[in-house]
Specification:
This protein is mostly helical and 237 residues long. It is built from 10 helices and 2 strands. A two-stranded antiparallel sheet has the order 1-2. The longest helix has 22 residues. It is globular, with a radius of gyration of 18 Å. The two termini are 19 Å apart.
Length: 237
């Protein structure tokens, strides 16, 4: 296969996406205080159909609020109004706003993982036989990662304060594996750990927070400068 391109097969043996049981949205904990941060897809017992529908309805309502007004607009009252349900439904499902935001982060992470593992190009591998430039995929992934982290910055900042174990968490491992795979397809060889760390560092919550608050950069500007960095990469001849 041409190393500059990839088909629709993703070489990440982490998710059982072919399981007949729908993947649940359960997270592996980084710490006891953040038991639902940084999720991975797992196959397991599905929710009751009505509970799953209600959850999806509330997640979609909260996502619309973030997209239109920002994360600060996501309150229990606002989500209930947007979803057309009673506030009690939201409280019974999530307990409080923190529970809601953690569930929303989990939902967003799962959607992103599904998109870059199986979705359409350029973020995903595309359809069978489709030739996708790995550089385009890497740029699409970085921008999607940046958007997800920016939308959930407060919760991610709390979760980041967990020490070096965050570097070995399964979800981060998948992100690094995906980045390494794309770099390999771009022609890079050898141990790519340092390069992966350098590429992913600006997409992590503390870096995003610093650039937005200290450097007054917008998410779009961060994404543009990050893309310039990635486009400047050249494998050794």
């Amino acid at each position: 296969m041409d190393p500059k391109h990839t088909g629709n097969s993703e070489a990440l043996p982490v998710f059982d996406l072919g399981s007949p049981t729908p993947p649940t949205h359960r997270a592996l904990p980084l710490s006891n205080a953040h038991q639902h941060v940084f999720p991975i897809l797992e196959s397991g017992d599905s929710e009751r159909a009505d509970a799953a529908r209600n959850r999806q309805l509330l997640m979609e309502a909260a996502t619309r609020l973030i997209e239109s007004q920002g994360a600060s607009a996501v309150t229990m009252d606002a989500v209930a109004r947007e979803a057309g349900v009673g506030k009690g439904t939201v409280f019974r499902r999530f307990g409080n706003r923190t529970g809601l935001m953690l569930a929303l982060l989990n939902h967003s992470e799962v959607q992103l993982q599904q998109a870059f593992l199986t979705g359409p190009a350029p973020l995903g591998p595309g359809s069978p036989g489709e030739r996708v430039d790995p550089l385009d995929r890497l740029i699409a992934f970085g921008r999607a990662r940046l958007a997800t982290a920016s939308a959930h910055l407060d919760i991610l900042l709390e979760a980041e304060d967990t020490g070096p174990q965050r570097f070995s968490h399964p979800t981060r491992t998948v992100i690094v594996m995906h980045t390494r795979m794309l770099l390999t397809q771009m022609g890079f060889r050898g141990n790519l750990e340092v390069m992966c760390m350098a590429i992913l560092a600006p997409l992590e919550a503390p870096a995003i927070h610093h650039m937005r608050t200290n450097d007054s950069m917008s998410v779009e500007e961060i994404g543009d400068y990050w893309e310039n960095l990635v486009r400047a990469l050249r494998p050794p001849s």
